[in-house]
């Protein structure tokens, strides 16, 4: 399993760490697991650390993510910081994800700097 997840900041922030090559099937499984955990625990802040990941996700799957969030009851007040892959792998997919989520009312922001991402989550 190329990902781990757990809560930080006294249970306030769900951190999902993804490392290495991740297939579309694995990415779907990770997404369902993390969204389910966020919904059950009513998480309002999420750190998606993709800095060491190579996600191979079809763009259509990315487009459908806000529908999954809505179906699981994820509120629009959730803020998600996404740490971009340091090697720039498929950056355009992350930018598309940010746009799709924002267009559907979810607060998603991309970061290259980890400290900035944590500060944004903690201040929002």
From the structure above, extract its key features.
124 residues; alpha/beta; five-stranded mixed beta sheet; 4 helices; 5 strands
Structure notes:
This protein is of the alpha/beta class and 124 residues long. The chain is 44% helix and 30% strand. It contains 4 helices and 5 strands. Strands 1-2-3-4-5 form a 5-stranded mixed β-sheet, with helices on both faces. β2, α1 and β3 form a beta-alpha-beta unit. α2 (59-71) packs parallel to α3. The termini are far apart.
Question: For the CA atoms, what is the radius of gyration?
Answer: 13 Å
E-strand count = 5
> SSE string, helix = H, strand = E?
EEHEHEHEH
Largest sheet: 5 strands, mixed
Q: Outline, from the CA principal axes? A: globular
Q: Assign a percent range to the helix content.
A: 40-55%
User: Strands of the biggest beta sheet: in what spatial order?
Assistant: 1-2-3-4-5
Instruction: Determine the mean pLDDT.
Output: 95
Quaternary structure? single chain
% residues in beta strands: 25-35%
Cα-to-Cα separation, first versus last residue: 31 Å
Q: Low-confidence parts lasting 5 or more residues at pLDDT below 50?
A: none
User: Total number of helical segments?
Assistant: 4
SS-based structural class?
Answer: alpha/beta
Entry summary:
The protein is α/β, with parallel strands linked by helices and 124 residues long. The chain contains 4 helices and 5 strands, in the order E-E-H-E-H-E-H-E-H.
Provide the fold topology.
Blueprint (H helix, E strand, L loop, with lengths): L2 E6 L4 E10 L1 H18 L3 E11 L3 H13 L7 E5 L7 H13 L3 E5 L2 H10 L1
Parallel strand pairs: 2-3, 3-4, 4-5
Antiparallel strand pairs: 1-2
